[in-house]
Write a structure and sequence with these properties.
The complex is a heterodimer of chains A (about 450) and B (about 450).
Chain A: H1 19-26, E1 33-49, E2 52-68, E3 73-79, H2 122-139, E4 144-161, E5 166-183, E6 189-198, H3 206-219, E7 231-234, H4 236-246, H5 255-268, E8 285-287, E9 310-314, E10 317-318, E11 338-339, E12 348-349, E13 353-356, H6 364-369, E14 373-380, E15 385-386, E16 392-403, E17 406-410, E18 414-419, H7 420-425, E19 427-430, E20 435-438, E21 442-445, E22 448-450, E23 454-457
Parallel strand pairs in A: 7-14, 13-21
Antiparallel strand pairs in A: 1-2, 1-4, 2-3, 4-5, 5-6, 7-22, 8-9, 8-13, 9-10, 11-12, 14-16, 15-16, 16-17, 16-18, 18-23, 19-22, 20-21
Chain B: H1 17-27, E1 34-48, E2 56-70, E3 73-79, H2 84-94, H3 116-139, E4 147-161, E5 169-180, E6 183-189, H4 194-209, E7 223-225, H5 227-239, H6 244-247, E8 268-270, E9 293-297, E10 300-301, H7 308-313, E11 322-323, E12 332-333, E13 337-340, H8 347-353, E14 358-360, E15 365-369, E16 374-379, E17 382-386, E18 389-394, E19 397-402, H9 403-408, E20 410-425, E21 432-443, E22 447-449
Parallel strand pairs in B: 7-14, 13-21
Antiparallel strand pairs in B: 1-2, 1-4, 2-3, 4-5, 5-6, 7-21, 8-9, 8-13, 9-10, 11-12, 14-17, 15-16, 16-19, 17-18, 19-22, 20-21
Helix pairs in contact in B: 3-4
The chains are: A alpha+beta (about 450), B alpha+beta (about 450).
Chain lengths: ~450, ~450
């Protein structure tokens, strides 16, 4: 098949792979298929740490060729632009036959305006970090931001294949990571590490960031007892981490079996009201690599497949696993879920931007105000540990005790544990404040009210 | 069989270092400022035995990074390219006051075709390795499905400052990653040969046989750490704890010097120049000559691990341990090749000392909590020591403690040292291969938990 010039481009993206690249694809060995990928990126990284301040600017540019035939395949990458010919790589192949997607219908995705925003300057970047440190000290006297790191980046990519895929895409994202601490009245120091992700620095307001840090530091000072019963309000940073831990059960060809096992456990636990569902009617889970609310939103995935919403759980009912086009029974209907973080990386199935669908009409204040006795859990203070059987989880958390809808004091270091089926079934309310946390992909959730999980004061 | 490099002759040898140095002299003020350019070329060849996955994977890259350090501020500009134009762009990005013109080096004289036969030699060894490993497993009467990834890594680097140009440093080594239903197992080695196949097969066989064993009860059993396990434990508990940037979080790193950590016979070094052939370094990633650094001498902290920046900030530290995962990040104080001097215990002595305890052949992963100084090591499985021999298998558990508990609890050190990869260290998200030459150790008093 020859390369067709049916280019699907996002405005401002890399120019089409040039004639030399088209020539390279056209002159591939008979019987071969070949995909060329090119990516360029710029990033600026700012760090304020005890050892000093640093400002790093990276300019990255590289290409990748993925090709082969029915007998084997190869993957070759390098810096700069695609070479005029593939030397040794074009001769060696092994492993699986090459598998490349056919062209899909063009994406109707319109790039958000922020894609055109310039990267922050040196002064702006350090001013943002200094502003957060200053606001934290003002909000919570004694609190100190020990290490602050902010990275702002933009990228552009182009992809061309012998099967006719010819697309380009752009990305724009920034991340903020802060380590802060607060003396704990003669009992050492409480520490938090917080991560934020946004499309541009303008979304990260120093006062807002500082208040979130201050809340978590205060919550880690024990003032109230962990409630032995009651409902728990899970703020987005915690709920999103639990979704991240659950994600492997929603992705891939094994997902239906994993979800069926979870449904069966839920039914056996006398949850007749589930009516075959895996979770609460209030719970819907979606993966959408093109959703503007996520900072990694893009028109196409790492294989040139348009990103679209894919519902995995609708009103508590598991409807479909998240599959790449080559895993799907109907590849033409697949959504773009392949991640390709850089030109060195092979595309691998997502999730891309996996999130719990928010309820637009429900405010966080309503959710918190509705709790007679319980806790408002702000964030995960450790990674989520999965039990050996994969069904349960434990995570260190920070939060406040709630009585009649009001916070009555920090809970101190606590652990939250339970089973994933209990988490899905125990969702009692969903808020509208969708927010994402960075991980292997982006994971998002609004505030949730849940029951059926266990909160305990951490030992020691 | 020796493994030949993918690129035996390298263009970095021909770098016009004079022009780079002259350009740096124009952007750095004389005195205490650090100004350097780090040139880097990397190659990676990857093969897998998984017929469902894409076959040969080859990654080649080149680039540079210019850096300026002024007092406690630093500027870094990195590029995926090493042409004179890329150098000019990087220097302009870090310069605080731009001179009207910067000298430009001559373009590299590329050595086309130099990889040829040697590259094929590496590839043929890589292709042969899975069969070698299969044979070694069959000898041990075990068989199980697993996905094996064999990678060959090469990195060539050179650092130029306004006054000096380092020699070209070459690292070339293999990494193995086996993934089975019951867990993952990895190894670093500078040669792909039968000895490696036998060693890796033995680890896989032990892990396979212990896959369903119950974990040991929580407690404080005596632990016999094989050299590979001791390497990881010392890396996490000692090397990280004595890195200048981490020590600086609680005061001056120099304050740690003289601190008593173990018995007067305890000596631990970091010496990149004595790492296994293929991982050996004569200069660090800042172009500073490496040295035989005594971390612990006679049981006391001697010389923390430092890079240029920390050595200048805290005047009494010795640089030469500034390493970076790649050009896009700044160097950090890091261990490269840890050494523990041999003791006098024979294998039988070690087993006798560890009677009733657990023999740990390998540690899967480890981490040091900087704030508390507490380390956690994940052990995929071990064997009980009973009657002077290895007994029943136990399953996964963790070892926890602090540097003082590890070194203070040292009961015996083996007379025979082994050089091996200590694993991939991911300090600050920067992944680097680290190495160690250590004997087996018997340690009492560390806490274990299932």
């Amino acid at each position: 098949m020859s390369v067709e010039r049916r280019r699907q481009s996002v405005p401002g993206a890399l120019p089409a792979l040039g004639d030399a690249a088209r020539e390279l694809v056209a002159r591939r060995p008979r019987g071969d298929e070949l995909e060329l990928y090119e990516k360029r990126g710029r990033s600026r990284r700012f760090t304020i740490a005890p050892e000093g301040e640093s400002f790093a600017q990276a300019t990255e540019a590289g290409w990748a060729a993925r090709g082969g035939d029915g007998r084997g395949s190869y993957f070759v990458t390098g810096t700069g632009g695609p070479p005029p010919k593939l030397d040794a790589a074009g001769r060696e192949r092994s492993g699986a036959p090459i598998r490349l997607p056919l062209p899909f219908a063009p994406s109707s995705w319109t790039p958000p305006a922020e894609l055109d925003a310039p990267l922050v300057t040196e002064n702006e970047g350090f001013a943002l970090l200094a502003g957060i440190a200053r606001e934290l000290a003002r909000e919570l006297p004694g609190a100190v931001a020990r290490r602050l790191a902010f990275e702002d980046g933009a990228s552009s990519s182009a992809l061309l294949s012998s099967l006719g895929v010819d697309v380009s895409s752009r990305g724009r994202a920034c991340s903020l990571r802060i380590e802060a601490e607060l003396p704990n009245a003669g009992q050492g120091t409480v520490r938090v590490e917080a991560e934020f992700v946004a499309r541009t620095a303008a979304e990260l307001k120093p006062l807002g960031v500082a208040r979130r840090l201050a809340d978590r530091l205060l919550a880690l000072r024990p003032e109230a007892n962990a409630p032995s019963a009651g409902e728990l309000v899970l703020a987005p940073p915690l709920a999103a981490r639990l979704l991240e831990a659950l994600a492997p059960r929603l992705v891939g060809l094994d997902a239906p079996a994993a979800m069926a096992a979870m449904e069966e456990t839920a039914q056996n636990d006398n949850r007749d009201e589930l009516e075959g569902r895996a979770g609460s009617r209030l719970l819907s889970i979606v993966d959408d690599g093109g959703d503007f609310r996520g900072a990694l939103a893009a028109a196409y995935d790492g294989e040139g497949v348009p990103c679209r919403p894919q519902s995995l759980l609708i009103e508590g009912r598991f409807v479909a696993p998240l599959l790449a086009w080559w895993q799907s029974a109907n590849p033409n209907a697949a959504t773009g879920v392949s991640l390709r973080p850089g030109w060195r990386d092979l595309p691998r199935p997502g999730p891309t931007q996996l999130f719990i669908a928010p309820a637009p009409a429900v405010s966080v204040a309503e959710l918190v105000g509705s709790i007679a006795a319980g806790a408002y859990l702000l964030a995960a203070e450790s990674g989520v540990r999965i039990s050996a059987d994969g069904a349960g989880f434990t995570v260190a958390v920070s939060g406040f005790a709630l009585e009649r809808g009001r916070a009555t004091g920090g809970l101190g270091p606590c652990t939250l544990h339970g089973r994933f089926d209990s988490l899905l079934c125990g969702v009692r309310a969903v808020g509208r404040d969708l927010a994402f946390v960075p991980g292997r992909a982006l994971f998002g959730s609004p505030t949730l009210v849940v029951s059926g999980l266990v909160l305990e004061r951490a030992a020691g | 069989m020796a493994t030949a490099p993918l690129h035996p002759l390298h263009p970095l040898d021909t770098l016009d270092t004079g022009a780079v140095a002259r350009a740096l002299a124009l952007i750095a003020a004389p005195g205490d400022e650090i100004a350097d350019v780090f040139y880097e070329r990397r190659s990676e060849l990857e093969l897998t035995n998984d017929e469902r996955e894409i076959g040969v994977r080859r990654r080649d890259e080149r680039g540079l990074a210019a850096r300026l350090v002024r007092g406690e501020r630093s500027w870094l500009a990195s590029r995926d390219g090493d042409s004179p134009a890329e150098l000019q762009a990087a220097l302009r990005a870090v310069a605080r006051a731009l001179p009207p013109a910067l000298p430009s080096p001559e373009p590299f004289a590329e050595l086309h075709g130099a990889a040829g036969a040697d590259s094929q030699s590496v590839e043929s060894e890589m292709r042969a390795f899975p069969a070698q490993l299969e044979r070694a497993l069959r000898k041990r009467l075990v068989a199980f499905p697993f996905r094996l990834t064999v990678r060959w890594h090469e990195r060539t680097s050179r650092v130029v400052t306004s006054r000096t140009a380092s020699p070209v440093e070459r690292e070339a080594f293999a990494s193995l990653d086996a993934a089975a239903d019951w867990g993952r197992c990895g190894e670093l080695a500078t040669r792909l040969d039968d000895e490696l196949a036998e060693r890796f097969a033995e680890r896989l066989a032990q892990r396979f046989r212990a896959r369903s064993a119950p974990p040991p009860a929580a407690g404080h059993p005596t632990l016999l750490l094989a050299p590979a396990a001791a390497a990881v434990a010392l890396h996490e508990a000692v090397a990280h704890a004595l890195e200048a940037d981490l020590l600086a979080l609680t005061g001056s790193p120099s304050a740690a010097e003289g601190l008593l950590l173990g018995s007067p016979t305890l000596d631990i070094l970091d010496d990149p120049s004595s790492a296994p052939d293929g991982a050996r370094r004569t200069v660090d990633d800042e172009g500073v000559p490496t040295s035989r650094r005594w971390l612990v001498r006679g049981g006391r902290v001697a010389q923390p691990i430092a890079d240029l920046r920390h050595a200048r900030r805290f005047g009494e530290l010795l640089p030469g341990s500034g390493f970076r995962s790649d050009r896009h990040v700044e160097p950090l104080p890091r261990t490269h090749h840890l050494e523990l001097l041999a003791g006098q215990a024979s294998a039988a002595d070690l087993l006798a000392e560890a009677e009733g305890g657990l023999a740990v052949a390998e540690i899967e992963s480890g981490a040091l909590d900087v704030a508390s100084g507490r380390f956690v090591l994940v052990v995929p499985g071990a064997r009980r020591v009973s009657g002077g021999a290895l007994g029943e298998a136990v399953g996964r558990f963790t070892i926890q403690g602090r540097i003082g508990a590890l070194l203070g609890g040292l009961v015996a050190a083996g007379a025979r040292r082994e050089a091996a990869g200590a694993g991939w260290c991911a300090k600050a998200g920067q992944r680097r291969a680290v190495w160690a030459t250590v004997p087996a150790l018997v340690v009492a008093g560390l806490e274990i938990a299932p």
